[in-house]
Amino acid sequence: MPKPPLKVLMAAPRGFCAGVVRAIDIVERALERYGKPVYVRHEIVHNKYVVDELKRKGAVFVEEIDEIPDGRRPVVFSAHGVPRTVPAAALRRNLFQIDATCPLVAKVHMEALRHHAEGSHIVLIGHNGHPEVIGTMGQLPEGAITLIETVADAEALAPRDPKRLAYVTQTTLSIDDTRDIVQTLRRRFPAIRGPYKEDICYATANRQEAVKAIAGRVDLLLVVGAPNSSNSKRLVEVGLSNGCRRAALVQTVRDIDWSMFRGVATLGLTAGASAPEILIEEIIKACSRRYQVSVEKITLREETVSFKLPRELREAKPAA
What fold does the segment set 5-16+202-299 form as a domain? Predict the structure, then answer.
């Protein structure tokens, strides 16, 4: 029997962003320079495939600094950023610290610190419990930041001084949802100050816009990404809210429920900012075993952003 046809619309940009590339490079360069093991606090990025590859090369992942044995070994802080208590704990342990915080997350930290220094109370728009939110809130004393997640939270906000407010956001939020929250804050608190440039990062924005471009043309959207990846989960939501009837988040080809493909003539395919392209390629191969696949690439824009490595790793030499 001939294979049924399947058209695949591949959204671009997709996959690795500059902050993720930098974070992975930091761990790999640290292994080259300092040898095994290099400790990493929390997943360097939210992707099991990436984490497993780095483990294979000699990285050891821990959740807290006190899990690291004594000795002056490198510890890398994840791309999501960490509270100030974490570097302080590493310093007390005499650990060699390497910060892989995405520069765009670090920008949010600096904004929060600046607004706090100027006497403003900070409103952080983000998802409770996400490592990036924990890291941002951990830049300031307890009580200096109020976290809100929804328009309802913005409506209920009751600050002590409505004229001394500033807001920052998590970098991986839904553009549309965040816009609605910001509009509510600005309506209720006209004096509220925001970032000079929006905090939602270029990669998050680009991937959401790319999904919007294909959502109305596909019967099913697959987003490659981890269940704890905020930007990947947002892509599923964006697809569903922009004309796609069905959308699913999968970590790898092994997670695909092929019964979802019943009645699917056109498949949309994208990946969150921490998902490597090899996972997309594996899905295309698996589809090709079942269908006569034709691929159309829908590219909204090319990304050319890159970030420098920390100074101590730019001239990395292999460990002796």
Answer: Cobalt-precorrin-4 Transmethylase; domain 1 (3.40.1010)
18-102 classified as CATH 3.40.50.11270: yes
**What's the alpha-carbon Rg for the chain, to the nearest Å?**
21
> Taking the model in full, what pTM does it have?
0.94
Q: pLDDT digits over 251-307, tens only?
A: 999 999 999 999 999 999 999 999 999 999 999 999 999 999 999 999 999 999 999
104-188: CATH, from 3.60.20.10, 3.40.1010.20, 3.40.50.2300, 3.20.20.370:
3.40.1010.20
d(CA 198, CA 26): 26
Q: What is the arithmetic mean of pLDDT over 208-237? A: 97
Q: Which residue has the tokens 């996972």?
A: 279
Q: Cite the active site residues.
A: 132
Round to whole Å and give the CA distance between 283 and 265: 16
